[in-house]
Predict the structure.
Amino acid sequence: MSAMILDGKAVAARIKREIRTEVERLKERGISPGLAVILVGEDPASLIYVRNKERNCQELGISSYLYRLAATINRKELLELIKQLNNDPKINGLLVQLPLPGHLQEEEVISVLAPEKDVDGFHPVNLGRLFRGEEGMVPCTPAGI
């Protein structure tokens, strides 16, 4: 088997063109895509990752909403925010930036996300669909393989 060089920049540009076209189609139908990102704490890598998501949303015409929360937020407040965003019609996609501070249980937090808004594909329903080979949100790593 010979090696194949993958031009990541070209692939990314093609994917962005496709997404931009889809966003334009949605807007023509009166649907304005919105992504909410919840960032708990000040993890340096997470800050960079979230900033990149915001930049990409802006480039693609997707509204982004960042909820920066103190690392000391309590469980009840975080879960309540997620429930509010689940019910917010301007939010089509929702993600909780991981890792979370140690006092918050990632599995519990992720399980409160509405499966249809879980853009990371980490909700148990979405992981089950992936396992069964059903259509649904696929986490980035398996999608890239």
